[in-house]
Structures are given as structure tokens and as C-alpha cells.
Amino acid sequence: MIIWLYDHRGRLLLLLCSPLLVVAWFWLSDFLEDLVKPGPERPAYIISKKHRDDTLRVAVLGDSWAEYHTTLSCDTIFCRFASRLTSVPVVCFSTGHSGMPSGSIYKEMFADREVEYEWERNFCSQPLLEQHPDYCIVMAGINDMRLFKPVSYYTGNYKLILELLIKNGIRPVVMEMPDVDFESFNGQRAFYMKWAYSLLSLWTKIDNNSAQTYRDAMRQMLKDHGFLNKVLFIPAAKWNSGGVAANPHIYLDDRFHLNMAGYHVLDSCMATEIIKDYKNRKGITN
Fold first, then answer.
1. Contact 57, 133 (CB under 8 A)
2. Are the CB atoms for 94 and 59 separated by under 8 Å?
3. Over 60: is that where the pLDDT of 5 sits?
4. Which of 144, 202, 263, 285 has the fewest CB atoms within 10 Å distance of its CB?
5. How far apart are CA 204 and CA 152, in angstroms?
6. What are φ and ψ of residue 13, in 5° steps?
7. Around Cβ 285, how many Cβ atoms within 10 Å?
8. What residues contact 233, with CB distance under 8 A and at least 6 apart?
9. Mean pLDDT rounded to a whole number for the chain
10. Sign of the CA dihedral 133, 119, 67, 137?
11. Cα 230 to Cα 233: distance, rounded to the nearest angstrom
């Protein structure tokens, strides 16, 4: 019976055959539509002018992947890799908030946002951006998919993040949706949560196997809005070819987050790509 409920055809039949669920579905439709809308866009703030020294400043913001980058002292690891590739001083600083989808990450870029609890003000990336980094690595998206957000929510909010960074002369580093074990992670949910997200999946057309859909939508958004020459794009395969199946040793036991070995791999790649881009833009040949 349980297997039948999780079968795609079974869910559809259950939905169509239950008048109560049909009524509930229509009652929730407006709520769900608001839940998956990107934005709204907030007025952009302008931070101070760039520093006049030759230090290369790199910021990292986003979800738990950015938060772990802070707690595991990976800012230092990034600087170590980057300093091997350039003679200029390199500084890296990061901030992140576990569990946050792209819409919340965008909202937390504003210190004057409304918050439900005062402690939420501790999660704000505006002070980090006010240090005017040359590059800002954006780690966002895995919670959009974890929460079965539609691709329009993901790309719409990511677009707002990029626009705010670009308006302030910060070069965004777009990290493509990484490979994680969504099926295993979501399988740990309570039964009623699985059931609720199955219904949400019907609405958003997103499930545990939609990572490539997100990646394709991101590439299309960058192209459609003229971002290709304004951002540094790092494909997931650039640092983790084969994903979880090929490289389980770089993940924590949840197969959703990187361990220290994983961050060494990731930071090595990010440092290499950023220094390469930095030299190209500066006309440095060595």
C-alpha cells in the first residue's frame, strides 16, 4: 500500500479520487503560488569604493555549504591554494546560513530586512559585502531542490543575487548545482512530510532527480540575461566529476555536505579558477 502511494500514478489517482484532497489542493493553490515566487526584488544598496591596495579579496556566501566553509576554517584553505598561484596577497571571508533556499539567501543580503526573530539579524551577508570583495562565490540551490522549489524560483532569486553583486562592482562566482544524494537525504523525512512533498512535487514538477533540470535552467538564465561575460561560472563536474557515486569519500555521512577532504577539493578548484580569471582580466601572463 505504501509503495503504491509513492508511485507517481498512485499519487495522481489518490489526488483525483479524494474530494477532500481536491478541495484542499485548490484552497492551497494561491498559497503555493506565493511560496514558489522569486523575490521580491529589493532596492539595491551601494557599498563603498574598492580598496586601492593590491590585495585580492574573495567572499563566500550562501547556504550550509558556505556556513561549513566558515566553521571548518576553509577560508584559510582557500587562501593557501590561491597564494600558490599568485604573488598578490589573498584574503577570503565567508558567511552562510544552513537550510536557506536562494530566496532567503537573497533576502539576507540586506541588513534592513524585516525579521521574525531578532537573532535572525546575525545571519546577514551585507557586512561581508561592505568589505568590497573582488569576487563573491555564491553557494545556493541545494535547498531549493530539497524543498522542491520550481526552477523559476531558483533562477529568479539567483538573478537578483547576481544583479546586486554586479551593481557593486563585485564579480560573482556562480557555483553550478553540486551533486548530492537528495534521495537518501529526503528519505529520512517523516511519512507525513514525504506525503506533503509528494503533493508539492506535482505542483512544481521537481523531485529528487531534478538536479540537471536546475543546471540547465541556470545556464539558460545566464545566457538570456547577458550574464555570461559578467560572472565566473564553475561547473560541478570541474571539481567533482562523477558526483557522490564516484567520490563518496569527500562527503559527510549524510551524503549532502562535504567533509574536510571535500572542501580541499572544492577550494583548490575555486582558487585555481578565480586566480586564472583574475590574471586574464588583469592581463597577467605568468
1. yes
2. yes
3. no
4. 285
5. 10
6. -65, -40
7. 6
8. 174, 176, 222
9. 87
10. negative
11. 9
Residue 174's closest CA among 43, 258, 62? 62
| 3-class SS string, the chain | CHHHHHCHHHHHHHHHHCHHHHHHHHHHHHHHHHHCCCCCCCCCCCCCCCCCCCCEEEEEEECHHHHHHHHCCHHHHHHHHHHCCCCCCEEEEEEECCCCCHHHHHHCCCCCCCCCCHHHHHCCCHHHHCCCCCEEEEECCHHHHHCCCCHHHHHHHHHHHHHHHHHCCCEEEEECCCCCCHHHHHCCCCHHHHHHHHHHHHHHCCCCCCHHHHHHHHHHHHHHCCCCCCCEEECHHHCCCCHHHHCHHHECCCCCCECHHHHHHHHHHHHHHHHHHHHHHHCCCC
**Burial label, 128 (beta-carbon count in 10 A; 0-12, 13-18, 19+):** middle
Place of cell 481536491: 22
Cα separation, 114 vs 119, in Å, equals: 12
Task: Give Cβ neighbours of residue 283 (< 8 Å, ≥ 6 apart).
Answer: none
| Superfamily designation of domain 36-282 | SGNH hydrolase (3.40.50.1110)
Q: What is the mean pLDDT of residues 93-120?
A: 89
Contacts of residue 19, defined as CB under 8 A and 6 or more positions apart, other chains included, come to none
Judge whether 153 and 36 are in contact, CB under 8 Å.
Answer: yes
Phi-psi region of 113 (alpha: psi -120 to 50; beta: other; left: phi over 0): beta
Radius of gyration of the chain (CA): 20
Q: Which three cell numbers stand for residue 265?
A: 577539493
pLDDT, one tens digit per residue, over 193-238 is: 776 777 777 778 888 889 999 999 999 999 999 999 999 999 999 9
Residue whose cell numbers read 533576502: 107
